Amino acid sequence: MSAVSSSGWLYGAIQRRRNRSLGGLYLVVAAFLILYAVLFPGILSVGGFSKFTQNWFPLALVTMAQALLMLNGGITLAIGPLVSLGAVIAATTMGTALGVPGGILAVAFVGLAIGAVTGAIVAHLRLPAIIVTLAGSFIITGVALILLPRPGGFIPDWLSITLAGHTPVAFLLLVVIVLAWKAFLATPLGLGIYAAGDNPIGAFRSGVPVEQVKIVAFALSSLLAALAGLFVAAQTGSGDPVIGTPFTLNSIAAAVLGGVGFLGGKGTMRGAICGSLLLSVMINVMFFLGFPPVAQYIAQGLIIVGAVAVPELLAKGRARR
Amino acid sequence: MTEQKPLLEARRVFKGFFGNPVLKGVDIALHPGRVHALLGENGAGKSTLINLLSGALQPDSGTISVDGKPVGRFSPAGARAAGIAVVQQELSLTADLSIAENIGLGAFPRRFGLIDYRALHRGVRDVCDMVGLTEPLDMPVADLALGRRQMVEIAKALFRKPRVLILDEPTSSLSAHEAGILARLIGTLRDRGTALLYISHRLNEVQALCAHVTVLKDGGVTADQSLAGIDGEGLVRLMVGRETGDLFPPRPAANPGATRISVENFSAGLVRDIGFSARAGEIVGIGGLVGQGQEDLLLGLYGAIPAKASKAEVSGKGALPAHVGEANAAGIVYVPADRKHEGLVLPHSIASNLILPSLGRLARGGFRDRGAEAGLIADLARRLTIKGDVARAVQALSGGNQQKVALAKWLPLDPSVLLLNDPTRGVDIETKREIYLMLRAFAAEGRLVILASSDTPELVHLCDRVVVLREGRVAASLSGAAISEEAIVGAAMGINTQGAAA
């Protein structure tokens, strides 16, 4: 069989098959992007593209953070507070002796540590993730408010300009993060996230370290959310202890739009990222079409219900025939 | 050949769950180059033994030895390192991952910490060729039919290059062709010196493939012997027979009343085209291996799943109940097998569970009548010998007493037909006796009791008639002296003994 000799045929074939199942989503995203470009041709310039991707970037990160846990059969309600905490830590450390590198490390360390502890509680005490992360969201919000009771802090201008200026640095960072995720998914541990999400008992019996996988998933998820906070702080030039709040529900909405299921193991990260892009574009399009904010909320809700219901109805229709 | 040292051995292993002993000092020894059969009825402890042998569970006491050396704490990863692989009855596959990734899961070849997809491809190709899997290896398992998924499960076990291979009912979802491939594969592995443990309810397979048998009954070993010279009926004899003592109430002389249920060409779920009838005052048992349509027969008669029949008479009506409400109105009630999930509201009190089906009937002007409720609760508790405070949460009760509550709550509706799904599973002997007495009393009051059961002695000694289902059809319909453990087990396993189609 020639396929055996060609380099990595199996890996490529698996990836192509995953893309094929997302064809519909890709088309919808493309259609919205074209509509957006027609309404707002500025996106085609370097500056416009940079601004657009900067708006999308934090949502993309938190959606990855959410999808990571949903694929593993869990969910997290602590995304928003983690974004806030990341922003607050960035804004309170970068003006001190730690400087920018120290501040970034502090944000990353706190994100990883909170996630690992949350994951250990969920995995070893076998508590439901939704409750543990709900409790965590209150605690994290509290800590953020103690560190920085009102918006402020210090972010050096050069950092804001680098990350959120007129260059597509945010987009490049996203590419790097996506590549890192792909490398992680090519490790036994990464693939274990899917297996343990879909069939935990089967994965355990196959020798997958299910608990370790869960802790790693929580740690990486929290890291992504905290880094999203750092970016938001750079974008706004300051720390704000409640700035992340809308991200919790938007991350779930974007993951669901991208076809990530609630029961674990169903969906793909590339789908989730597309979902976040779709949500981001839709919000922008509605804004430019002059929808009042209230109508935007309602339209957003209807689109999400539709996105979940339509494939379900199609599948039912197929099954009946 | 059997003089060799066993590869995998369990000695005097005990295992219980929540104080309920499942294995009571079991010995088993798997030798290289031998196919060992493990037989036993549902609930005899086979799955628990497999889980101990493969590290998924730890024994309460006793030892598991590999190559004659006792292993301490055994994990699935440790068992794999020792060369033990299991083909699970409940598949261990991840639906969204590809065939290749599923086969490699937990045993991926690595290169620089990443999964080596090329090495994986080669290894997976080899085992797929062995089991005749020709589907593209990048196909998600979700797109495969059940039988093909089973073949993936087998390939997954082979990928681990096992020295000990445990196969738990591997053929239950396979086609004849696939089962043939598996049989040849088992022969090849045996000749290469693999130790095999084969669990199956298909006795002809056991005869054809296995050289040695261990029979489990109620958590103990009742036979551990060579299969040379033993035929199908001999195997059935090894599996049946147990002291029943005075567990069962005496069976009165047959005096059935009017026909309560009569269906022809009845189909529901797994049940295909069967005829069935039962009369008032009877206890009719439904037997068979797990999942042969017993539950669907009950649920179909109850209107809980779609059912059809060319002719039906149910509780005086000329049609099957269209939904559960209609069945209840006609005096038909159903007590589910999974009492913890379907039969009871566990955190609520005994009292509130008992009155749940009667709430509407007892209400006055739309409001609950606490006085009438209290009277009913006291009456039910007395009739069912439920002792102690009825305000206790149901989850604090033993399995047997929970079952009594799940049964008793229907009595105020004065049902004429009781459909019971395995009411004594996980119930202690004393409560079993009480439930049997209760069911006998129901029958004497002119009610019809239809009882699906995985407990063969219960079918033999309690029921007036027994219908054995196999693959959704009636394999045997027994009554009177024709009801015996041999006849029921034989029919359930598709071996012809006397009394079939009476």
Automatic annotation (TrEMBL), chain A:
Q: What is its main location?
A: membrane
Could you tell me the keywords of this UniProt record? Cell inner membrane, Cell membrane, Membrane, Transmembrane, Transmembrane helix, Transport
Q: Name one Pfam family in it.
A: BPD_transp_2
> Which InterPro entries would you find in this protein's record?
ABC_transp_permease
The portions of this protein that span the membrane are 24-44, 104-123, 130-149, 169-194, 215-235, 247-265, 272-291, 297-315
UniProt subcellular location: Cell membrane
Q: What membrane topology does this protein have? A: Multi-pass membrane protein
Q: Which PANTHER family match?
A: ABC TRANSPORTER PERMEASE PROTEIN YPHD-RELATED-RELATED, AUTOINDUCER 2 IMPORT SYSTEM PERMEASE PROTEIN LSRD
Cite the record's note on assembly: The complex is composed of two ATP-binding proteins (LsrA), two transmembrane proteins (LsrC and LsrD) and a solute-binding protein (LsrB).
What function is annotated for this protein?
Answer: Part of the ABC transporter complex LsrABCD involved in autoinducer 2 (AI-2) import. Probably responsible for the translocation of the substrate across the membrane.
Q: Would you tell me the protein name for this molecule? A: Autoinducer 2 import system permease protein LsrD
Q: Which organism is it from?
A: Shinella lacus
TrEMBL record, chain B:
Where would I find the ABC transporter domain in this sequence? 8-243, 253-496
State the taxonomy lineage: Bacteria, Pseudomonadati, Pseudomonadota, Alphaproteobacteria, Hyphomicrobiales
Listed GO MF terms: ATP binding
Q: Gene3D superfamilies given for it?
A: P-loop containing nucleotide triphosphate hydrolases
The record's similarity note reads: Belongs to the ABC transporter superfamily.
Entry protein name: Sugar ABC transporter ATP-binding protein
Q: Which UniProt keywords apply?
A: ATP-binding, Cell membrane, Membrane, Nucleotide-binding, Repeat, Sugar transport, Translocase, Transport
InterPro entries the UniProt entry points to: AAA+_ATPase, ABC_carbohydrate_import_ATPase, ABC_transporter-like_ATP-bd, ABC_transporter-like_CS, P-loop_NTPase
